[in-house]
Amino acid sequence: MDDRNRAGPVALAAQLVYYRIRWPGESAVVEDFLALLDDPLDPFVRERLAGHFTSGVWLVSADGARVLMTHHRKLERWLQLGGHADGDTDMARVALKEAQEESGLPGLSVEGDSIFDLDRHWIPERKGVPGHWHYDVRYVVRAGADEDYVVSDESHDLAWRPIAGMADDPDESLSRMARKWLGMR
Hints:
Layout: H1 8-22, H2 27-37, E1 52-60, E2 66-72, E3 78-84, H3 91-103, E4 109-110, E5 117-123, E6 132-142, E7 155-162, H4 172-184
Parallel strand pairs: 1-6
Antiparallel strand pairs: 1-3, 2-3, 2-7, 4-6, 5-6
Helix pairs in contact: 1-2
């Protein structure tokens, strides 16, 4: 096993079990993620079109009041940052890498060692790639003092958005994360 997989599936399984204890109302979602983790086909590569792991980023400002959102180029929606594991089984590391690549922000750090949120969502067919499931394992990443982002090729735009106003967002995934964040503070 190479260095990028040192945390491995065992660590992810432990994080998922802890998440289920913390959020018992989401037990069914956790079971879906554990089943994927147990699949003999590699669930960490995007070529597994029955579904694969991705890592989402709840990238909060240094003061914790805002979150950096991307106007996603492929999906044409405002979403949290994130992306494919591409073989890496350390999902927190994937979250940090995606946050750095998609925001250009220096001084980012993963906050804690726990999963912040889980979301299984359908990705529609695009450019010959069949529709498939993303099993998004989400972590909190905290920005440093420098909040001057750089828009990557994956986004139309980025924007800092007040988290308090997102608790009632029509996108259930975004509102759930906002409510979790606001309840944690």
